[in-house]
From TrEMBL:
Similarity field: Belongs to the Orn/Lys/Arg decarboxylase class-II family.
Domain of life: Bacteria
Species for this entry: Lysobacter niastensis
UniProt protein name: Diaminopimelate decarboxylase
Length: 386
């Protein structure tokens, strides 16, 4: 029974057990974010000399306290919908619009109009928008998102380049885009590429910068090169820490080869994933055909990542942290889908029982942001701790 996977060493939340248990009291599912962790991650990125500006991809976690914390560290914010843009200005009415970047995908025309009215930076990734809505773009300054021809990342569903991906202008249409832009008096001041999410190779971003800088030299009007987000975090016990020093050195080197352009990154996950935990309450424990299952009051409705990407999150019994973990369990949610499994074969205390509080680790990115009300289950609650 007891050959489940080993689990990753606990992080900030281990010293906060009583506080978390009391936060879980009013009810679960419940997300809790530690702002000190967010701040620490933000500082670890902004310490890099080569990076001129960081925009936090708020899709990962748009909680107002998180936005305030990250903007307080000097970051801008990257948005992909008008809803996200409105969240930013509702939370930070005084924010300089130049610190807000709009990088939508297949957005309706009115969202581009609203973005230009706000004076935020707009990224476009197809020529058809210029052709269909010339009056929206005429005389504007934009950034152009390029498809460099391949995707990267932790799962096929998060790779955003290549023929199968809907994002980015393919290189075959680059010259045509420049020509169309010239006709409309559209100035392209930035080049952008984001190849995917959870990219483990620290050298990836220097390659993107080199590629875009080569193109930028031909455009003539480029001031900024945005090399996207996609920095990973180690979700599994075996995963190595991301080598931030190697990442930094790579950017330093490539930046000194092409010093002309401002270098922009737009990380999401890296800043917030490890700051967040999802608290759940055990509903039932059941054994069926030799498989033990711990049922929780939240599953793929509260945290979609395991069902959608077979993503790994550490799972712990917060009520019995001091008990030896001796038995293998599948940890499941209450949703009527076979994919509603948060973790398989996890080693947890044998005595785990109804009412225990379970903690799902590293859930601060794309957790609450992707939660849903499937089966008419309520959305999780959220709290932050300083
Ligand atoms: N920039 C653009 C244009 C993006 O599309 C994304 C993420 C980011 C930046 C931030 O990527 P990050 O640094 O967080 O990897 N739901 C998936 C991830 C989807 C990412 C979508 N785009 C997951 O839970 O793994």
């Amino acid at each position: 029974i007891a050959h489940g996977k080993p689990q990753r060493a606990p992080a900030w939340w281990l010293g906060r057990r009583e506080q978390l248990l009391s936060l879980a009291q009013p009810g679960t599912p419940h997300y809790v974010y530690d702002l000190a962790t967010v701040r620490e991650r933000a500082r670890s990125l902004s310490a890099s000399n080569a990076v001129d500006r960081c925009f936090y991809a708020i899709k990962a976690n748009p909680h107002p306290a998180i936005l305030k914390t990250i903007v307080g560290e000097g970051f801008g914010l990257e948005c992909v919908s008008l809803g996200e843009v409105e969240r930013v200005f509702a939370t930070l009415p005084q924010i300089d619009p130049g610190r807000v970047l709009f990088t939508p995908s297949f957005a309706p025309r009115r969202e581009y109009e609203a973005a230009f009215e706000r004076g935020i930076i707009v990224t476009l990734d197809n020529i058809e928008a210029l052709q269909r809505w010339p009056e929206v773009f005429r005389g504007r300054t934009i950034w152009l998102r390029i498809d460099l021809g391949h995707g990267e990342g932790h799962h096929e569903k998060v790779r955003t380049g290549g023929v199968a991906a809907k994002f980015g202008l393919p290189m075959t249409r680059f010259d045509a885009f420049l020509e169309e832009a010239r006709k409309l008096g559209v100035r392209i001041s930035g080049l952008h590429a984001h190849l995917g999410s959870g990219i483990e190779d620290p050298q990836h971003w220097r390659g993107v910068y080199a590629h875009l800088a080569g193109l930028a030299d031909n455009v003539g009007t480029i001031e900024t090169i945005d090399i996207g987000g996609g920095l990973p975090i180690p979700y599994t016990p075996e995963a190595p820490e991301f080598d931030l020093a190697l990442w930094r050195n790579g950017l330093d080197e490539i930046k000194s080869a092409y010093p002309r352009y401002g270098l922009v990154i737009e990380p999401g996950r890296y800043l917030v994933a490890e700051s967040g935990v999802l608290l759940l309450t055990v509903t039932q424990t059941v054994e069926k055909d030799g498989v033990r299952r711990i049922g929780c009051d939240g599953g793929m409705n509260a945290l979609m990542r395991p069902a959608m990407y077979e993503a790994y999150h550490g799972i712990f019994n917060l009520s019995r942290l001091d008990d030896a973990a001796t038995a293998a369990f599948d940890v499941v949610g209450p949703v009527c889908e076979s994919s509603d499994v948060l973790g398989r074969g996890r080693t947890l205390p044998l005595a785990t029982a109804e009412g225990d509080v379970m903690l799902v680790a590293d859930a601060g990115a794309y957790g609450m942001a992707m939660a849903n009300t499937y089966n008419l289950r309520a959305l999780p609650a959220e709290d932050v701790i300083e």
